[in-house]
Write a structure and sequence with these properties.
Blueprint lengths: L2 H19 L3 H17 L10 H23 L22 H15 L2 H12 L4 H8 L3 H26 L1
Helix pairs in contact: 1-2, 1-3, 1-5, 2-3, 3-6, 4-7, 5-7, 6-7
Amino acid sequence: MSFGDDLLDQVPRLRRYARSLISNRERADDLVQDTLERALRYASRFRADTDLRAWLMTIMHNVFVNDVIRASNSRPHIAMDDAGIVDDELSVDGHHAASLDMRDLDRALQQLPPDQREVVLLVGLEEMSYAQVAQALDMPIGTVMSRLARARRKLRALLARDTVLSA
């Protein structure tokens, strides 16, 4: 297989990770495109004996962080959420419970700091090992483990709070 074919095989994972990082589908697709563009531009720097997925996640991480920094420096962010919707007004039958759980999890993930959210998504969603995440994010494995522990603790608290509020 060629390098281009190997890149194409990674697109679904990149899209899934990008959409988890950024809830806006178009911006997530832009992140994937920017990642692939950089991967092609710097293909000569990729070593064939290394993990392509980790290399691409490193590129995506760097593009994402640069975009966040650029956005925070350029304009204020106004959070838009559906907090104005009163849950009692919405009736939901049983088969939608899983969908609501996913919505709650996504909302909780979006409340995590970006550095914690990245680690959770790479370990939980992409099923990368701690070592692979450490390599992709260029940090010590201990930092990966502590960020993951803090993120899990915060997610449990956020999800427990949502459960109490909806009861």
